[in-house]
Amino acid sequence: MFWPAFILVISIAGVLFLVYSMQNRGKFGWNEFYAKGREAGFSTIEIDQLRQLVISSHMEDPTSIFWSQDQLDICIRSYVKNMHDSGASVDPGSNDFLSKLYEYRKKIEMDRPQARMGISHTRQISEGQHLQISIEGVGNYRAQIVRNNSQYLTISRPTNDKIAPPSAWPGQKLSISFWRENDAGYLFDTEVLDEVFSMGIASLKISHSENLSRTQKRNSVRVRMNKPAFLYLLERDEEAHTIEEHPGLKCILEDLSDSGCAITVGGRAESNLRIKVQFLLNNNALSMGGTVRSVAYRENFNRSLLHVEADPLPIEMRNQIMGEVFGMIPDMDDDLTFRILDEGSRESPPQRAPSDEPPLMDLGFGEGPGEEEKDDLDFAPADKALEPSL
Do domains 122-211 and 223-386 have the same CATH topology? Predict the structure, then answer.
């Protein structure tokens, strides 16, 4: 008699506990949600907004937005759409919250294992890697990895148009730095073993190094672009993000992030220039000012790839760029508008007196692109943006 009654009581208790758990599952889940939100650095008001987003997105596990980039992307897209539909795209409070979402989204991306992978030895450097080479007391040169085997590295003979090479390369001590794409900057010291021809290229054999230092980690997420853009020299006190009304030097925007961009220009360029790059993003004109930190010259195409470190961006501009980086905004055909801007400006160039006509901008590019490339990369009509001020 005792055991059947005991089993009945246990069964009833189990059913009641199940009903209670189902009824209170939401309350328990939100407690955990708020706890994880605070751990992620969000304020209570911001977590309230996140809660509304996950409810409207019908997520089974609301806490997944704190570790799943896919789930967080759903919430961000919903918020961006709400901002657009309500006309809140220029509201400071809305942009502040959106910026916080993008920053957390970037953190999730950067914390992924593949984003933290690096190399630890010069034998892992890829063939074709561009190098910056420094010789103490002489100067800096450019080179490229031609071959990499277990015994030594073969690099193209270092070049610098403004500095003569050493009278003899063998025995020279080299300090080499390079930027590994999607990873970080690296530095190592080595010695020239021999001067040779490799694959028809004048080259140097250099020793491997056991001490490869990782100097600067990637701090942003980039997106490939291949988009037409204009380049302008920055005046010393000029606002870095002012929109220009007339085209500058044509260039190609190769990639973009909230911390800078990469562009291709015709000819040979130099580092440490102050420039700004103007382009269209989802039919909005953006102008990114910054400093050219490194240049890779491609002699066979007579083009230079410039890596630009951006000045601090206005929050609205940063949000637009992050929306493009993470694919939060539908693709729009804004290149057509860009071409219309270019053609319209060419049809009605700014009027100047003959004596006021400035020379073509000299960025140290050397000769311009070949005839087959001039339709894509040439100098725009003369205007104030083309006046050198360095």
Answer: no
Which pLDDT score is estimated for 379? 31
Nearest 5°: the CA angle 375, 386, 276 is 85
The class of domain 122-211 in CATH terms is mainly beta
Structure tokens at 309: 């470190």
> Of 370, 385, 113, 162, whose CA–CA distance to 267 is shortest?
370
**Alpha-carbon distances, residue 89 vs 84, 98, 259, 294 (angstroms):** 6, 10, 21, 35
Q: Which residue has the tokens 């009654």?
A: 5
> Does domain 223-386 sit in CATH 2.40.10.220?
yes
Whether the model pTM is above 0.90:
no
Which pLDDT tens digit goes with each residue over 174-183? 999 988 876 7
Helix (H, G, I), strand (E, B) or coil at 389: coil
Residue 153, pLDDT above cutoff 70: yes
Q: State pLDDT tens for residues 33-63.
A: 999 999 999 999 999 999 999 999 888 899 9
Across the chain, the runs of DSSP E, i.e. the strands, are: 130-135, 139-148, 152-156, 173-180, 184-198, 201-207, 213-217, 223-233, 249-257, 260-266, 274-281, 284-298, 303-310
Give CA–CA dist 227/362, Å, rounded: 23
Q: Are 231 and 279 in contact (CB under 8 A)?
A: no
Residue 83 above 90 pLDDT? no
- pLDDT at residue 25, rounded to an integer: 46
DSSP 275-308: EEEEEEETTEEEEEEEEEEEEEEETTTTEEEEEE
| Domain assignments of the chain as residue spans, ordered by start | 2-114, 122-211, 223-386
For residues 86 and 320, what is the distance between their CA atoms, to the nearest angstrom?
A: 17
Nearest CA-CA partner of 231 in 299, 302, 305: 305
Instruction: Classify strands 152-156 and 260-266 as parallel, antiparallel or unpaired.
Output: unpaired
What's the confidence (pLDDT) of residue 349?
Answer: 35
Residue 231: both structure tokens together: 């380049």
The pLDDT value given to residue 223: 86
DSSP letter for each residue of 323-362:
HHHTT-S-----HHHHHHHHHHHHHSPPP--GGGPPPPP-
